[in-house]
Amino acid sequence: MKFADMPDQYRDYASSKVVILPIPYDGTSTWMKGADRGPQAILDASFHLELYDIETGTEVYRHGICTLDPVSCPKDPGEMVAELRQHALPLFRDNKLVVGLGGEHSITVGLLQAAQARYPNLSVLQLDAHTDLRDSYMGSPYNHACVMARANEICPVVQVGIRSMDIEEMDSIEPDRLVLAHDLHRHGINAATNALDQLTDTVYLTIDLDVLDPSCMPSTGTPEPGGIDWYMLNQIIQYVASEKKIVGMDVVELLPRKHNQAPDFLAAKLIYRSLSMILTDSLNP
Fold first, then answer.
1. Is position 229 annotated in a ligand binding site?
2. Which domain holds residue 193?
3. According to the annotation, is 210 in a ligand binding site?
4. Which InterPro entries match (predicted)?
5. Residue 2 falls within a domain, yes or no?
């Protein structure tokens, strides 16, 4: 299955600006399992997308969107990270905008390592309900609860939408790079601009779908009440895309539900909308 119902001429690797990399990994989830089914659910739902984006007035697929075969990852999370890094390195070196489809959040580390090898001045924007700053969890430093602790070892991180953490993570928090969900509800995008402005010129974007409120995104393994909505999420991405160069991204933690496919479509549309915002300048005359 490929991403979106678009003409085959826009799927060729050599001429595509965007590469979709499905990563069906669910090795460290600690509550509800099933994120390994997320990539296929996103690809299935993407075939129902309209290819014209109203907000940007563009058809971003004309840049080319190549979908690669799913990565077969080892179960061990450390080995998975190493495997993903090797998969993603040539993609970034070919100047592709890499989009990882999770899978759970631990996949971000391998993708980020590969991106930083290509872009040394990289920073990370994490959109998430959870800080994910534990140094180790359930016996592994590569657990999904540790992903931002590992990211901090690679490059600067800005965290937005947070509303859940453990007290042991407090020492790792950088207050000027942390935006809590309740502040976004009270003050809108203005609550985030100071933190977002601290991102470097080159950004990797990681979106844990539980950053959204469960009322619009119930299909995650660790839902948290009080999340942001669709328009706030897009507003944050638009702000960064207009100021910085986003060179890679992932969308993680979709746990598909057989009897509710709306969240699958939301994830697919979020990817297409994000690409439209990231690449809009080069599409417009």
1. no
2. 8-283
3. yes
4. Agmatinase-rel, Ureohydrolase, Ureohydrolase_dom_sf, Ureohydrolase_Mn_BS
5. no
